[in-house]
Amino acid sequence: MRIVYLLFPFILLLVQGAAGSSLVPGNKQQCHREKGFCGFLNCPFPFGISGKCSRFFFCCKKLFG
């Protein structure tokens, strides 16, 4: 019964991490569908990171406007 108190925080962390994982672009096609582009390691100034295209490429979308 004591182990339940130890496992409860880990279960909450897993659920919290999985909650919003499907809301951001996860591949190149989703990024382009949301009018973004894939940038290597970072995005140029008027753009911000909005998801991941692959391991080192991030989905860049316009921050303002």
From TrEMBL:
<keyword id="KW-0964">Secreted</keyword>
<comment type="similarity">
    <text>Belongs to the beta-defensin family.</text>
</comment>
<protein>
    <submittedName>
        <fullName>Avian beta-defensin 1</fullName>
    </submittedName>
</protein>
<dbReference type="GO" id="GO:0042056">
    <property type="term" value="F:chemoattractant activity"/>
</dbReference>
<keyword id="KW-1015">Disulfide bond</keyword>
<keyword id="KW-0211">Defensin</keyword>
<keyword id="KW-0044">Antibiotic</keyword>
<dbReference type="GO" id="GO:0031731">
    <property type="term" value="F:CCR6 chemokine receptor binding"/>
</dbReference>
<dbReference type="Pfam" id="PF00711">
    <property type="entry name" value="Defensin_beta"/>
</dbReference>
<dbReference type="InterPro" id="IPR001855">
    <property type="entry name" value="Defensin_beta-like"/>
</dbReference>
<dbReference type="GO" id="GO:0060326">
    <property type="term" value="P:cell chemotaxis"/>
</dbReference>
<dbReference type="GO" id="GO:0005615">
    <property type="term" value="C:extracellular space"/>
</dbReference>
<keyword id="KW-0929">Antimicrobial</keyword>
<feature type="domain" description="Beta-defensin-like">
    <location>
        <begin position="27"/>
        <end position="61"/>
    </location>
</feature>
<dbReference type="GO" id="GO:0042742">
    <property type="term" value="P:defense response to bacterium"/>
</dbReference>
<keyword id="KW-0732">Signal</keyword>
<feature type="signal peptide">
    <location>
        <begin position="1"/>
        <end position="20"/>
    </location>
</feature>
